[in-house]
Design brief:
Number of domains: 4
Shape: globular
Low-confidence stretches: none
Number of strands: 17
Strand content: 5-15%
Protein name: U5 small nuclear ribonucleoprotein helicase
Helix content: 40-55%
Keywords: ATP-binding, Helicase, Hydrolase, Nucleotide-binding, Ribonucleoprotein
Structural class: alpha/beta
CATH superfamily of the largest domain: P-loop containing nucleotide triphosphate hydrolases
Largest sheet: 7 strands, parallel
CATH topology of the largest domain: Rossmann fold
Strand order of the largest sheet: 3-4-2-5-6-1-7
CATH class of the largest domain: Alpha Beta
GO molecular function, one term: ATP binding
Number of helices: 26
Pfam families: DEAD, Sec63, WHD_SNRNP200
CATH architecture of the largest domain: 3-Layer(aba) Sandwich
Mean pLDDT: 91
Radius of gyration: 26 Å
Domain Helicase ATP-binding: 56-231
Distance between the termini: 46 Å
């Protein structure tokens, strides 16, 4: 078919990355404070090249700053410099640190509770998601750690909350997640903080941290950073030199491809982990089940080479006391031969024990499931990524890992104070090799998805009276990353041109459509075709952070005569449960569960996440024992 390029508008060319200057590394004494120097004596002696280049901007200025640098570049220390600058100017200042995922927040909280809490006497808190508790934590906290979702709930009512207004430093880490599935919430929270600062005319410093981005200039402008304070380094300027090998497999069937990759994983561990001087190697696999399979495969290959314990780096007697602490029987067996494995179902106690053994090089190999890349606190000399696809139950197909998952995995190859270099082996389908060669060695492009899910954010702003008419809704959008990207990549956002009129018409249409949907859902009323006023359903939805279609469903379906079966059906059909994960062959287990619950679902479609939600809610209420994976899904449902 012929394709017309008549209306094609190419995106703006990306600016060149920031040059890494050849500077003398700054010693920690550059902090000019003996007490602050003590914070880093056990960690580093001098700042790395990237930290040295941005040191004065972070530690001696109060300007907004964006830094795009590869994983393992020490961006967290850059954030710490900004916090130290805040406390230097205002000992009672408040800082909010945002990370996109809870495990990342937990890791930073552990580190900062020791550094800023115990050593500096500051109150470091991590938000819980319970609004009443979080308001108390916000009141007393000086370093507040949160996910975008939790901060969104607290910051929505910033006009009434003095403690939100008193924040002097806002650090947004891993900003590349703005281009991901939950990116719109992250985008809105950052935009709101800038908007709040200008409305109150109070100084708020914003720090953005990310992997290198091809459109970093737009991110910097969105955050209010000047061009001099937008640092976007090339991915190859990692302080620890990284050697990446990409190996392709010409097998499309996933299970067969994983079988074929097993031997290559073993050979990669031997080649890059070393034999005479073994170094720790981390292997990432797609699923929980595959962690155990790969760990056993590695030991089988080692046994075939007549060296069954080649991955065990200490005497068995030294390891035995730690193995006795482990609850998982298979894990005990693999650990005794020097291979550990971790996935989401492994208990906290077992995970910490395995990580400790890996950290001290008692075992050489650790196999982890894909999502553990954000939970693991450990680093290795080398990383092997075994395949780059996972099964998406929502779409009933195999999908590629998000690129930032792979960047996070690669970032685990980084023992900065021990090794002189790091290794990574990426195993993928042949057809994907060119893609990874491009995006692993070039800055990452990100786009906004806020235009697809504006309704709940608009509703929240209408309830708090930040938006009181359609013009204010348009003005509100001008603070977003979406607005910055619309003119730079117009076709991506369905704009037909880049003139002011094209942009104005598109924003007006977006606002009209969104507010009309909210009016139809009875969340708000539009008066005289211009002003907007919140209604009861909208107020309830904003207060409890409920999706606007969910509150409409509840309003239309719930009556005084609704029975328990009806309640379960209505609740489980909420939009919030549309993304509950579905796994291969799970329908068999769900079918069996349907026979055990009190309110059986006739003609159930077990590939529907809402049906699964209904079953798991009933299982929870009936205290039915569930397999580990279903139990984690059940916990997620109950938390929502």
């Amino acid at each position: 078919l012929p394709v017309s390029f008549r209306h094609l508008i190419l995106p703006e060319k990306y600016p060149t990355p920031t040059e890494l200057l050849d500077l003398q590394p700054l010693p920690v004494s550059a902090l000019n404070n003996t007490d602050l120097k003590e914070l880093y004596t056990d960690e580093i002696k001098s700042f790395n090249p990237i930290q040295t280049q941005v040191f004065r901007v972070f530690y001696e200025n109060k300007d907004n700053v964006f830094v795009g640098a590869p994983h393992g570049s020490g961006k967290t220390i850059c954030a710490e410099l900004a916090i130290l600058q805040l406390f230097k100017k205002n000992p009672n200042g408040k800082c909010v640190y945002i990370a996109p995922l809870e495990p990342l927040c937990d890791i930073v909280y552990e580190k900062w509770e020791l550094k800023f809490g115990k050593k500096m006497g500051k109150c470091v808190v991590i938000l819980t998601g319970e609004t009443a508790v979080d308001l108390k934590l916000l009141a007393k906290g000086q370093v507040i750690i949160s996910t975008p979702e939790k901060w969104d709930v607290l910051s929505r009512r910033w006009k009434q909350r003095k403690h939100v207004q008193n924040v002097g430093l806002y650090i947004a880490d891993d900003l590349h997640f703005v281009g991901g599935e939950n990116g719109p919430v992250y985008e809105v929270t950052c935009s709101r903080m800038r908007f709040m600062s200008t409305q109150l005319d109070t100084p708020l410093r914003i720090i953005g941290l990310s992997v290198p981005l091809s459109n970093a200039k737009d991110v910097g402008q969105w955050l209010g950073c000047s061009s001099q304070n937008t640092f976007n380094f090339h991915p190859n300027v990692r302080p620890m030199p990284l050697e990446v090998h990409i190996l392709g497999f010409n097998i499309t069937h996933t299970a067969s491809r994983l079988d074929a990759m097993a031997k290559q994983v073993y050979l990669s561990v031997l080649k890059h982990g070393g034999i005479l001087r073994p170094k720790p190697m981390l292997v990432f696999v797609p699923t929980r089940k595959q962690t155990k399979v790969t760990a056993v495969d590695l030991l089988a290959f080692a046994a075939a080479d007549a060296q069954p314990k080649r991955f065990l780096l200490v005497e068995a007697t030294e390891l035995q006391p730690f193995i006795e602490l482990i609850n998982d029987e298979t894990l005990k067996e693999t650990l005794s031969c020097g291979v550990g494995y971790l996935h989401e179902g492994i208990s906290e106690n077992d995970r910490r024990t395995v990580e400790r053994l890996f950290d001290v090089c008692a075992i050489q190999v650790l196999v982890a499931s894909r999502s553990m890349c954000y939970i693991l606190r450990t680093h290795a000399h080398g990383v092997v990524i075994m395949d780059t696809q996972y099964y998406s139950g929502r779409n009933h197909t195999y999908e590629d890992y998000p690129i930032y998952d792979i960047l996070q995995m690669i970032g685990k190859a980084n023992r900065s104070n021990i090794d002189e270099d790091a290794k990574c082996v990426l195993l993928c389908q042949n057809s994907k090799k060119a893609f990874y060669k491009k995006f692993l060695f070039e800055p990452l492009p990100i786009e906004s998805h806020l235009d697809h899910c504006l309704h709940d954010h608009f509703n929240a702003e209408v309830v708090t009276k930040t938006i009181e008419n359609k013009q204010e809704a348009i003005d509100y959008l001008t603070w977003t990353f979406l607005y910055r990207r619309m003119t730079q990549n117009p076709n991506y956002y369905n704009l037909q041109g880049v003139s002011h009129r094209h942009l104005s018409d598109h924003l007006s249409e977006l606002v009209e459509d969104t507010l009309n949907d909210l009016e139809q859902s009875k969340c708000l009323a539009i008066i005289n075709d211009m002003d907007v006023q919140p209604l009861n359903l909208g107020i309830i939805a904003a207060y409890y952070s409920i999706h606007y279609t969910t509150i409409e469903l509840f309003s239309m379906s719930l009556t005084s005569k609704t029975k328990i079966r009806g309640f379960l059906e209505i609740i489980s059909n909420a939009a919030e449960f549309a993304n509950i994960p579905l796994r291969q062959k799970e329908d068999v287990v769900l079918s069996q569960l349907n026979e055990k619950i009190p309110n059986k679902i006739p003609n159930a479609k077990f590939s529907d996440p809402h049906v699964k939600t209904n079953l798991l809610i009933q299982a929870h209420l009936s205290r039915i024992h569930l397999p580990a994976e279903l139990q984690s899904d059940s916990d997620e449902i109950i938390l929502k």
